[in-house]
Write a structure and sequence with these properties.
211 residues; mainly alpha; Four Helix Bundle (Hemerythrin (Met), subunit A); disordered N terminus
Length: 211
């Protein structure tokens, strides 16, 4: 059953989530530097995003409602873990290049889309499904979950650069968690008064013209 938490104030409850996001993002940023031998423009875009999230974590709005159910928590853990699992697995079992040039283009496009989505969300950004407000500007005028679209483009791009059967399995698990998060988030966001109008204007969740 989905647990929906009401709006709370002070440093209890949601504040713990803010500090947790700050801590997890700090670890991610450290891993990015440890696992990346040479930084490209794309890598620096991801560094910028992590720095922005550090600031957002300590200044974002408190949610009116939030989903901390076991299923949503599991989806968040999988979504955070599967990109790093691919990196570690490729160091253990090297993969094969498919189309490195095309992969680089997709990864760069994904980084730009992810940054634009984060800038559009600003202090409304969160990890668990929550209602802090409705984002309708920037990439959110094209699809309802452009950040997740960016993740999927990046997954395809990185696997075009180097892939094996293991990385494909990790991506499938990661995408399953993203699809679950889409439905969980929309269940929460549907409580916003402007949701029905937004859905009528932006009909597709992830793939323009398809879904």
């Amino acid at each position: 059953m989905t647990e929906v938490r009401p709006h709370v104030s002070g440093i209890s409850g949601r504040r713990f989530g803010d500090f947790l996001l700050f801590g997890v993002t700090s670890v991610e940023l450290a891993l990015l530097f440890l696992l990346t031998p040479t930084f490209t423009i794309t890598d620096w875009i991801y560094v910028l995003q992590h720095v922005l999230v550090l600031g957002i974590a300590l200044t974002r709005r408190q949610p009116q409602v939030q989903d901390h159910s076991l299923s949503s928590s599991a989806a968040v853990v999988i979504a955070y873990a599967y990109p790093y699992a691919q990196v570690v697995y490729l160091r253990w079992v090297p993969g094969d290049p498919a189309w490195p040039e095309g992969g680089l283009v997709l990864v760069t496009l994904a980084a730009c889309l992810s940054l634009a989505s984060l800038l559009s969300m600003g202090r409304l950004f969160g990890v668990f499904p929550a209602l802090r407000g409705l984002v309708t500007r920037g990439p959110y005028r094209l699809v309802r979950h452009p950040m997740y679209l960016a993740y999927m483009l990046a997954d395809i791009g990185y696997n075009l650069e180097e892939w094996n059967f293991g990385t494909v399995l990790f991506v499938m698990a990661g995408w399953a968690s993203l699809l679950y998060r889409v439905h969980a988030e929309e269940k929460i966001l549907s409580q916003d008064a402007g949701w029905s109008t937004y859905v009528a204007l932006v009909r597709h969740r992830l793939l323009p013209g398809l879904w």
